[in-house]
Design goal:
Largest interface: A-B, 24 and 23 residues
Structural class of chain A: mainly beta
Number of strands of chain A: 11
Number of helices of chain A: 0
Oligomer: heterodimer
Shape of chain A: globular
Strand content of chain A: over 45%
Radius of gyration of chain A: 14 Å
Order of helices and strands of chain B: EEEEEEEEEEE
Order of helices and strands of chain A: EEEEEEEEEEE
Largest sheet of chain B: 7 strands, mixed
Number of strands of chain B: 11
Largest sheet of chain A: 6 strands, mixed
Helix content of chain A: under 10%
Shape of chain B: globular
Chain lengths: ~110, ~110
């Protein structure tokens, strides 16, 4: 059983569209949650952390449902520059180690 | 601010040759450091992590090894590369405060021929 599962996509949307990505995780003791963005042939970069109350950063909104072990990312008013692979990442309990589990990513292409 | 460096950026090596990839972190002390590999079309696989000098833990048994000779230096090595070692190797460090996110270096793209 995979620790973190994501719909691989690809998602192809026009500029200005709203798109949502979902992710589920298997370890109910998970303590930290993130979305990373990875451009083609580049390193993953932190997009945003996900908090229990949900959080927003500009056009990006992340939500966490601990009961359902489900994380989401909503992108509003998509831009061409949003085209990338979005990785759902979950951290285990125990900050000393900081073990993270990565989903395989959801590919997004925004077209003009 | 913190910066993480990796080199080389790309590498083409024949099967059976040795490997040494280096990662250094600036702007922080005693960081947790991580080596990941991302094979083509696959997710990130944690290979090794280190919580301090000389302290290495292995996640996946294989022909790779890691060392941490200095506080901010992390090295990934192999004595004899296999074709299956090809991939994108990423070094990361962890922020030591909630929510403990990790930041990645630019990576080394290794092709074993």
């Amino acid at each position: 059983r995979k620790e973190v599962e994501q719909d691989p996509g690809p998602f192809n949307v026009p500029e200005g569209a709203t798109v949502a990505f979902n992710c589920t995780y298997s370890n109910s003791a998970s303590q930290s949650f993130f979305w990373y963005r990875q451009d083609c042939r580049k390193e993953p970069k932190l997009l945003m952390s996900v908090y229990s109350s949900g959080n927003e950063d500009g056009r990006f909104t992340a939500q966490l449902n601990r009961a359902s072990q489900y994380i989401s990312l909503l992108i509003r008013d998509s831009k061409l520059s949003d085209s990338a692979t979005y990785l759902c990442v979950v951290g285990e309990r125990g900050s000393t180690l900081g073990r993270l589990y990565f989903g395989r990513g959801t590919q997004l292409t925004v077209w003009p | 601010s913190q910066t993480i460096h990796q080199w080389p950026a790309t590498l083409v090596q024949p099967v059976g040759s040795p490997l040494s990839l280096e990662c250094t972190v600036e702007g922080t002390s005693n960081p947790n450091l991580y080596w990941y590999r991302q094979a083509a079309g696959r997710g990130l696989q944690l290979l090794f992590y280190s919580v301090g000098i000389g302290q290495i833990s292995s996640e996946v048994p294989q022909n790779l090894s890691a060392s941490r000779p200095q506080d901010r230096q992390f090295i990934l090595s192999s004595k004899k590369l296999l074709l299956s070692d090809s991939g994108f190797y990423l070094c990361a460090w962890m922020v030591t405060r909630v929510p403990y996110e990790q930041y990645f270096g630019p990576g080394t793209r290794l092709t074993v021929t």
